[in-house]
Amino acid sequence: MYNLIKLELRKTRIRPYVWASAIIALCMLGMLYTFSAVSYMGSEADAAEFSSYYNIMVLTNALIMFAFSILAAVMFTAFVIKDYSGKNAIMLFSYPVKRKSTLFAKVILVTTFTTISLLATTFAICSVWGLTESIFPLVDDSISILLVANVIRDALCMAVISVGIGLVSVWIGFRKKSVQTTIIAAVIISIAPANFIVLGTSYPIASVGLAVISAVAGVLALFDLSNAVNKMEI
Hints:
Blueprint: H1 2-11, H2 15-41, H3 44-49, H4 53-81, H5 86-93, H6 99-135, H7 145-176, H8 179-199, H9 205-230
Helix pairs in contact: 1-6, 2-4, 2-6, 4-6, 4-7, 4-8, 6-7, 6-9, 7-8, 7-9
Organism: Aequitasia blattaphilus
Keywords: Membrane, Transmembrane, Transmembrane helix
Protein name: ABC transporter permease
């Protein structure tokens, strides 16, 4: 499996996705400061909505999840849909390797990259934001161990949700043999959980429930996708 993943990295450039992750991180850091500024300079109603670090992080997490769901879908189009289309599929099936093994190597690669990038983004922007808030606070709140634990929990949940949405999206796109369908599906599917996460600020367990649902949906999509790849004829 390790050799298959190395082969995938040689076939498809990973650097554009690294840059995309960095751009997402910068945008999300900007959103953190925007939400903080609203708390500091906004009206009483705005200040109440952005009155705590956790509320601000929940809003930011929803955006992070949305962005990385799209990124995961884009990566899956490059590693799965394009590779299982036309002449690429003929070459891929000529390898003396089980079809499932090749597919799983691609999924593991995209899943690992998405998870690490999302967690790195969340922890990096929280570190920078937390440092500046400790020096020049914009939000009338304090950083606690409970807050840190909640942020870590939510970040892990966002990673699971993003990967799950990516898998479901590529399953839809694979059926249609369309890159555009995959990306559009990811955008549409991401909207509902993002809104649910924002509305569920008073119920932190909501993100855990969404993560479980996304994980189950992703596994089912992968199982069906694997069967479809095995039945493909050249």
